[in-house]
Amino acid sequence: MTSQSNCAEIYLNKLLNVNVDQIDIIGVSVALIYSKDIFKRNGDLKLFLKNVYDLEFLPYVTKSRTLIVARVTKELNKLTEEDLHIIKNKIISFFDDSNKNTENNVKFSKKNNANTKMKKWLEGL
């Protein structure tokens, strides 16, 4: 994970715990989607949403991260424990494979802003 920003590593470390439940997966998913450090543009989210959650949205949804989060959390609430475990592994593998991220043009910004606050919040859990 050397090509990724520190905030992505923090979120993924939360998922690497053995006892990860639905709330943890939803929380990390929301943090990743809202992160401008990880996904600079909303268009960059399309690949992540397709590969991890197998979701595709109409253009009006992809223009708003709030709508994206609402749709993703709605779908995550419907999943079983086994499905959530699969999603967890997909999130980890999406960010773990640095070659894949480079090939798919996922760009990481170097800004450090609200994600520092999110880091503190996640460490508190």
Summarize the structure.
The chain has 125 residues and is an all-alpha fold. It has eight helices and no strands.
Describe the secondary structure blueprint for this structure:
Elements: H1 6-15, H2 22-34, H3 45-53, H4 59-62, H5 65-78, H6 81-96, H7 98-103, H8 114-124
Helix pairs in contact: 1-2, 1-8, 2-5, 3-6
Provide keyphrases for this structure.
8 helices, 125 residues, globular, single chain, mainly alpha
The tally of beta strands, per DSSP, is: 0
User: How many structural domains are formed by the residues?
Assistant: 1
**Content-based structural category:** mainly alpha
Total helices: the number is 8
Q: For the report, how would you describe the main beta sheet?
A: none
Overall 3D geometry? globular
What does the radius of gyration come to?
Answer: 14 Å
Estimate percent helicity: 55-70%
Determine the strand fraction and express it as a percent band. under 5%
Order of helices and strands: HHHHHHHH
Question: How would you characterize this protein structure?
Answer:
This protein has 125 residues and is mainly α. The protein has one domain. Helix content is 66%, strand content 0%. It contains 8 helices and no strands. α2 runs antiparallel to α5. The protein is globular. The two termini are 23 Å apart.
